[in-house]
Amino acid sequence: MSDRQGNVVEVTGVTKTFPRGNVQALENIDLSLRPGEFVSLIGPSGCGKSTLLRIIGDLIEPSSGSVVVNGKSARQARNDRDYGIVFQDAVLFDWRTVSKNISLPLELLGWDRAKRKQRIDEMLQLVELQGFGDHHPWQLSGGMQQRVSIARALAFEPALLLMDEPFGALDEMTRERLNLELLSIWQQLGSTVVFVTHSISEAVFLSTRVVVMSPRPGRIAGIVDIDLPYPRTVETREAPRYFELVTEVRELLRSRGAHLLPEEEAALHE
Amino acid sequence: MSGMALTELKPGMSARLGRQARDWVPALVVFVLAIAVWQGAIAAFHIQQFLLPKPSAIVRSCWDQRHTLWPAGWYTFKEALGGFAIGSIAGMAAATVISRFRTLGSALMPLAVAANAIPIIAFAPILNNWFNPLSPSSKIAMAAVLCFLPVMVNTLRGLQSASPRQIELMRSYAASGFTIWRHVRVPTALPFVFTSLKVASVLAMIAAIVGEYFGGSYDALGVLIRSKAQILDFETAWAGILVASVLGIALYLAVAVAERLVVRWAPETRDS
After folding, report:
1. How many domains are there within chain B?
2. Number of separate domains in chain A
């Protein structure tokens, strides 16, 4: 943390106020991400975690404060295609096959056909969708669609992978399987990940650090270092240390989220 | 895992085609039955041929007078096609321009929707008067005006229907406005565009023929249908209507086939 130059993301004093209704979504956020980190942002609805993710990705602008990505402004980083993004919905293009969806960012980067084809094959293998390249998105299940979306986000090896509740719409079993797959992909590629989630267990299982946020206005309530060893497996979820960390995150959420609405409180216990 | 994944697939292409063939059978049976009932009823109830000729007589007349009817049909078809092309292209172009400027769209859209509800065909005599009533240009103009609005309204709706998430994704790739237009807005709009083109293809044929009812060249099908009805040659008039129907359906099917080729992916067209 001392070497600020080497950080992938440096968020300093970021505040965001939405003009409509004068809602303060984020207040004075400071956050640094080291290369290769897997950082989750967790908090109840309205804590601004998705807003923070979008500010890091230069999809919305902060009201004040700065975001530096790889030593550049967020705008410059976006223009340099430093971001891969995965949303809660797969956001695939129905008019493109699975292969062509993965190919889209590569086409925009001007890769030639042969290079694209090779990378598409590699990515299909990475997300275990060999043989599905010629299918259309609507022929796949939700979990498979989300794997295509991840393959597309990683295809051009972006420095930073931004994931906004990518598994939020999937059933528990698919989610746990994709958690394992995501970890294995992350370890193979060594990319830096910012992962927004509602789920405490998912955040603890995946991350090197969990950033706990509290709402109205969105603030960082605390950061929990997850010292579970990698590779993490199914057994990790049964380890005593895992439960300790889950409890730590939950209590941090509860202590700072005393003014939560009942349904938000319920969401934290899922 | 892939085995499990395979079972999650939805029915494939071949199953869908088979289902489509089966979907056609009931319609075909009803059609053949209706023609048979028509033919039978005329014989059974001694219906006068000036009220309703037998289908067989219409088809025979269609064949006997093929050297007048089909060239007349072709003449009218060309007018409809010209109007369809001009009106549709103008409609798509207008929608493209309007979609670039939000305020222009909000100013024009309510008017366009209101104009769309006007029975524009009522202007046919006026348009005949504006252009030379004997030339095809007045019919082409009529067809173009009739095609313009539905194509424009639907294309605009399509261009504005792009998913915000897809646009956000494209922006994360630092895609330009034109790239987003080409890769997201246009593909999203295409199913809307083709829906309106199918409507327009029907309207174009109606416009050309109705325009000709109010006066036109003796080479034209509408003029022929009207003059034959006036001299009580109803079999030929009906044969003219049959020619008009065949050509109208042909234009519609041509658009539908183009839609199938271009919009292969759209869930809307997959099962219809």
Report:
1. 2
2. 1
Please name the residues in contact with A260: beta carbons below 8 A apart, sequence gap of 6 or more.
A44, A215, A268
> Which residues of chain B lie closer than 8 angstroms to A80, CB-CB?
174
If asked whether residues B93 and B15 sit together in one domain, one would say no
**Residue A18 belongs to some domain of the structure:** yes
Around Cβ A163, how many Cβ atoms within 10 Å?
Answer: 25
B99 shares its domain with B133: yes
Residues of B numbered 167-186 whose beta carbons fall under 8 angstroms of chain A's beta carbons: which are they? Answer: 168-169, 171-175, 179, 183-184
Report the CATH number that the domain containing residue A75 is assigned in CATH: 3.40.50.300
Q: Which of B165, B172, B188, B271 to mutate to test the interface with A (most CBs of A within 10 A)?
A: B172
Cα–Cα distance, A37 to A257 (Å, whole number): 26
Domain presence at residue A233: yes
Q: How far apart are CA A244 and CA B87, in angstroms?
A: 69
Range of the domain at B247: 54-270
- B40 and B150 housed in the same domain: no
Say what the pTM is.
0.79
Contacts of A94 in chain B (CB under 8 A): 265-267
Count the helix, strand and coil residues of chain A and give each as a percent rounded to the nearest 5.
40, 25, 35
- Give residue-wise pLDDT tens across range B219-228: 888 899 999 8
Pairing of strands A64-69, A9-18: antiparallel
Could you give phi then psi for residue A106, rounded to 5 degrees?
-70, -40
For residues B155 and B222, membership in a common domain is answered with: yes
pLDDT in tens, B99-117: 888 788 788 888 888 887 8
